[in-house]
Design brief:
Shape: rod-shaped
Number of helices: 2
Distance between the termini: 46 Å
Order of helices and strands: HH
Radius of gyration: 20 Å
Mean pLDDT: 93
Helix content: over 70%
Oligomer: single chain
Low-confidence stretches: none
Largest sheet: none
Length: 79
């Protein structure tokens, strides 16, 4: 009986870890999408004359740091 309980505990822990990994992935994708939106807004403002090249570069640097830390999967997913 204890073997069954140990296997059940391992399976539950594995499922919990997979769920946490998926939540982390979704959160990183959302963060990446938000940074991409901010870069677009900074570029648009710069082009319209109400923004600055520095703000656009800062947004780009922040996005690049996110990609370096978490990858660019958010660029390849829809929604």
């Amino acid at each position: 009986m204890s073997g069954f309980l140990d296997r059940a505990k391992e399976q539950a822990q594995s499922a919990l870890n997979q769920g946490k990994q998926k939540v982390d992935e979704v959160q990183q994708n959302r963060a990446g999408n938000e940074l991409l939106r901010k870069l677009g807004a900074a570029y648009f403002a710069e082009r319209r004359g109400s923004g600055s090249p520095g703000a656009t570069q800062d947004a780009l640097n922040t996005l690049e740091a996110h990609v370096n830390a978490h990858g660019d999967a958010f660029l390849h997913t829809s929604g």
